[in-house]
Amino acid sequence: MVAHKGDWVLIEQVYLMAKQRQNHLPADTQAKDFTLRIKGFLSDETVEIGNSCSVVTKTGRYIEGRLLEVFPSYRHSFGNYLKETEYIESQLKNITTGDCDE
Description:
This protein has helices at residues 27-30, 84-97, and strands spanning 2-4, 8-16, 34-42, 46-48, 52-56, 62-70. It is built from 2 helices and 6 strands, in the order E-E-H-E-E-E-E-H.
């Protein structure tokens, strides 16, 4: 996929290489680069995913990195359903409505 100048994109930038990370970190963490993911408006004319580019963030910063996604969306959730929350919900309802003996 190709992104064009002005497109809303997601880039990744290596902030610290693995060898630059602190010694007190767990070994598996220390062995990986510390990366940032940043969204912004593409400032280059055209860029293919995986290539280097620069963006302008909503706060006006110019950042360089590797293009990951064009028009990124939110994919977060509140997680999977937990059966234990049924009991907690009924307790909370009783406490807040005054139907509680406690």
